[in-house]
Write a structure and sequence with these properties.
single chain; alpha+beta; 9-stranded mixed β-sheet; 6-stranded mixed β-sheet; 33% helix; 19% strand; globular
Length: 459
């Protein structure tokens, strides 16, 4: 039987008699949480038979519209499929105005067959390849975001006060503790909400632009769970920010003149004995200093980076983060302790050697990013793909995207992918490409206000 056990629900309801409503959350193909609200009395039925939602929910675009021309939707009558709770995701919603709970859902075609376009199921297909190798990926995700204020004209980055004054900090405050102390009430509520929802957050830091912050999640040996944590953290931060009179955004590039926001993925691999197969010689800036498994994993990541770009940067705004002048390079590159490369080897003791994958935007679907990333790792391991020369410490490298600076270029690379379809599924890849192409076409067809500002008075 899919879904969580009845015992989990009974225990949760007994421990939270005040909760009367539940948000049932279904991640779509973009990593946007869709869903329904169910009263407490309906939860027994949800756990027994599922909550039914239309199959097209999975394929909605960023606006919530169903792209035309798909086989799913009008062409097949848009059937309802059961969505079962994901075990371990029942949790209270501390920031809600009324006592509420939530749980994640996964869509099934029937009671035993996960729905093909559910991004959790796509990740499961990739993870099955690692089971065959006797390896367990261990991952930790880091998410950057902006806190925002509304000045009645446009949203702007939230700035904290200079202690002892009514003046606001105006400049970047990387690792600025004053900024964190100025947000103490907000951060305390974020930490409390994470505790209530079993989201294992680690450090929080102010980033390189005003109003920008990063929250790190702990390493876990369950990739699906790690992606659950990332997706629910985005919802949590937005919800808590609203309770404090702010907004929060995980857009990749909300402000042209400020830094973009990414999702960094740290990953190691454990064998059947629980040993890190990346461990070996102490980290150094030469490929031969690393275990072959780490070299091959990085080689696979770099080889698949161009065809993965449409997943790492899933919408039009994503590519503003990858443009000229950005600190990030999504061009295939790797190096030790070098933050400009696509795949970084962080300083670590021997047993904690890992790679950090840096190109994904904070706006991504974590499940699909993990699936694409691990597909590259597996491809590199089984084909023993060498990564090539490392970028040396202090060396500057090319900026931009592995698939060009535009969404359409990344989609073209994805359509011609040689590796990902074997892992994610040919049908899934074809439908993903079609959905994103249709959204890209609609986006490009819009006439932005900038056109009027630049051209209306002179043409």
């Amino acid at each position: 039987m899919p879904g969580a056990k009845q015992l989990e629900l009974d225990s949760f309801l007994a421990g939270h008699p005040e909760i009367e409503n539940f948000d049932l959350l279904l991640p779509d193909i973009n990593g946007i949480l869709r869903g329904v609200r169910a009263p407490r009395a309906d939860m027994q039925q949800v756990f027994k038979s599922g909550a039914y939602m239309s199959a097209s929910t999975m394929l909605l675009d960023s606006r919530g519209l169903l792209p035309e021309g798909l086989e799913i939707g009008l062409a097949d009558g848009d059937p309802d499929y059961p969505c079962f709770p994901v075990p371990g995701t029942l949790a209270p919603v501390p920031w809600s105005g009324s006592p509420s709970g939530q749980c994640l859902l996964q869509m099934y075609k029937d009671r035993s067959t996960p729905y093909y376009y559910d991004s959790r199921q796509v990740l499961q297909r990739v993870l099955a390849r690692f089971d065959e190798l006797g390896l367990t990926p261990v991952v930790a995700l880091e998410l950057e975001f902006y806190l925002l204020d509304d000045d009645e004209k446009r949203l702007k980055p939230h700035r904290t006060r200079i202690p002892g004054t009514n003046l606001m900090h105006e400049w970047p405050r990387l690792h600025g503790l004053d900024d964190l102390h100025g947000l103490d009430a907000f951060l305390v509520d974020v930490e409390a909400a994470c505790t209530a929802q079993d989201i294992p957050i680690g450090t929080t830091m102010s980033e390189g632009s005003p109003g920008q912050y990063e929250i790190n999640l702990h390493h876990v040996a369950d990739v699906e769970l790690a992606c659950d944590h990332a997706l629910l953290l985005r919802r949590l931060v937005r919800g808590v920010a609203g309770r404090h009179g702010m907004a929060a955004t995980f857009m990749a590039q909300p402000f042209a003149e400020l830094d973009g926001s990414g999702m960094h993925v740290h990953c190691s691999l454990l064998n059947a004995e629980g040993q890190n197969v990346f461990a070996g010689n102490a980290p150094a800036d030469a490929p031969e200093a690393y275990a072959p498994e780490l070299r091959f994993a990085v080689g696979g990541l770099l080889a698949t980076l161009p065809e993965s770009q449409a997943i790492l940067a899933p919408n039009a705004n994503s590519y503003r983060r990858l443009g000229p002048g950005s600190f990030l390079s999504a061009v295939p590159s790797w190096g030790y302790n070098h933050r400009q490369v696509a795949v970084r080897i962080p300083p670590a003791d021997d047993s904690n050697v890992r790679f950090e994958h840096r190109p994904a935007g904070a706006d991504c679907n974590p499940y699909l990013v993990a699936a694409a990333l691990l597909a590259g790792v597996h491809h590199g391991l089984v084909r023993q793909v060498e990564p090539g020369a490392m970028v040396r410490e202090g060396q500057l490298i090319a900026q931009g995207s592995a698939a060009g600076p535009h969404w359409e270029g990344a989609l073209a690379q994805f359509e011609n992918a040689r590796v990902l379809p074997d892992y994610l599924g040919e049908g899934f890849c074809a439908t993903y490409a079609r959905c994103r192409q249709l959204e890209a076409s609609h986006y490009r067809a819009q006439v932005p206000d900038l056109d009027y500002l630049w051209y209306l008075g002179s043409i």
